[in-house]
Design a protein that fits this description.
The chain is of the alpha+beta class. The protein is 22% helix and 17% strand.
Length: 467
């Protein structure tokens, strides 16, 4: 069930190679043209974003785009999601400052259409629309600590589905694993003062900007703060190795034509899955390296194999680099405020209903009141939950909380057992087309709980589950 690979650790003495660099400044990422702009529907003009139906302006993580596209398709036409991706912590900063995301890397606003396509809209410069919701790959405390942001208690966090961050190489690479110690030297020394073979070519070691959630989560796992990553600084013109968005990073790694074994980069697992499902060329594929954390004796893939999409090693806590998506919004009296309040509540109530609140253990608040009638309301229906869970699984390629067996409350922090009160392991695995080795889901189909037998006594989403 679990895929593990022996990884040779790097001598501890190398870990001092890049120490004592200055702490990073939170500045606008300067990588023009790196936004994944989406596709403009044929025959349409570019409307003002603010004129769309019940607009919600969301900014932050570029890795979150598949999840938000899936949510838009689930919501339907009642809410219009306007999305930009300057980077996780820049999105948080813009939300806190009540300003639009105008950073170069944020790109043009993308309207996530209810039919699953994307198009562009235009910000109203005469009446700038501030960010309603910040979406971050990392915990709010990570942005606060790494970039000296102050997050007031009136900002509410809603935890969305689980994503894994990965260290990836071209599919043609002969490499299959990396240790935390090796990754520390690869990204902290950039094959200059210290080198870890075969990643010995500085121009082939690709990173994101220091404000990236992908970089910050992986940094937490390998003990390398954002200011210590070579080529990740947001000061001045970005070096060629700094990729300003998920799509650019995927292309830089997958489409390498030289130094294949020396090429390496960082991506969310959903970005790898999405890229491999529809590459620009059949040979332009990505490979995730098994990762050995400092307290592990071997490396693990996120999935049960290099070709699977079951995320079993994430769900059970063996693969180390994972965490929930974080949605942050300002509130008054615990409720969203302003002209977009009802739409904000509607969007966030979906993630609350399908999130970790099901056990009351970590994460989301109670559902917000005042959501748009006929959509999420104060509670999300079972059918709506099932639609979002299915969309999160595929094409979102993330893990809904109901399929998780582990949880954590800090960035790549200690794990504890998690048991959803409304589990969906079989529904998730079947939706992904990813039956975990040893699974008995094929024998647990049901239409009512009366046909279920112990220990799987409750029929949920067409399968007998433990409760």
């Amino acid at each position: 069930m679990r895929n593990k690979v022996k990884v040779a650790p790097i001598a501890a003495g190398l870990l001092a190679a890049t120490a004592a660099l200055a702490a990073p400044r939170l500045a606008a990422a300067q990588d023009a043209g790196t936004q994944d702009a989406g596709t403009q529907e044929a025959g349409t003009s570019t409307p003002l974003c603010s004129t769309l139906t019940n607009p919600v302006f969301i900014s932050g993580s570029s890795a979150s785009k598949p999840v938000l596209v899936a949510l838009a398709a689930t919501l339907g036409a009642n809410v219009s999601i306007i999305y930009q991706s300057p980077d996780s912590c820049l999105g948080v900063q813009d939300m806190l400052l009540a300003q639009p995301s105008t950073e170069t890397a944020a790109g043009s606003p993308t309207y996530l259409n209810p039919n699953g396509t994307t198009s562009t809209c235009t910000l109203d410069t005469s009446n700038p629309q501030p960010i309603d919701i910040a979406v971050s790959d990392v915990f709010p405390a990570t942005c606060a600590n790494n970039f000296s942001l102050t997050i007031p208690s009136t900002v509410v966090e809603v935890q969305g589905p689980i994503q894994a961050m990965t260290i990836a190489v071209p599919a043609a690479s002969n490499q299959s694993s990396i240790s935390a110690q090796a990754a520390y030297v690869v990204f902290g020394a950039d094959a200059t003062t210290y080198t870890v073979a075969p990643w010995s070519v500085p121009a082939s070691i690709f990173v994101r900007a220091e404000t990236s959630g992908t970089l910050n989560m992986i940094g937490a796992a390998i003990g390398l703060g954002p200011g210590l990553w070579v080529n990740a600084s947001t000061s001045g013109s970005p070096p060629a190795q700094q990729q300003g968005a998920t799509g650019k990073m995927a292309g830089a790694v997958a489409q390498a034509t030289s130094n294949i074994d020396a090429t390496i980069g960082i991506l969310s697992a959903e970005a790898v899955a999405g890229w491999n499902a529809a590459p620009a060329d059949a040979t332009d594929q990505l490979k995730i390296l098994a990762f050995q954390a400092n307290d592990q004796s071997c490396g693990y893939l996120p999935d049960s194999s290099s070709t699977a999409l079951d995320k079993i090693n994430v769900r059970q806590g063996r693969y180390a680099i994972w965490g929930p998506l974080h949605f942050l919004t300002k509130t008054t009296g615990g409720q969203p405020t302003g002209p977009d309040a009802a739409a904000i509540a509607t969007v966030l109530n979906y993630f609350i209903a399908t999130g970790s609140l099901q056990t009351g253990s970590v994460g989301s608040p109670a559902p917000f009141t005042g959501a748009i009638a006929g959509d999420a309301g104060a509670s999300v229906t079972t059918a709506q939950m099932q639609a979002l869970i299915a969309a999160e699984a595929k094409p979102g390629y993330v893990v809904p909380w109901c399929a998780m067996e582990a949880q954590r409350t800090s960035e790549v922090g200690a794990e504890s057992s998690y048991s959803s009160t409304e589990p969906c392991q079989c529904f998730y695995e079947t939706t992904m087309g990813a039956t975990v080795p040893g699974s008995n889901c094929s024998t647990r189909t049901c239409t009512t709980s009366s046909t279920c037998t112990a220990p799987y006594t409750t029929c949920r989403y067409g399968y007998c589950e433990v409760q």
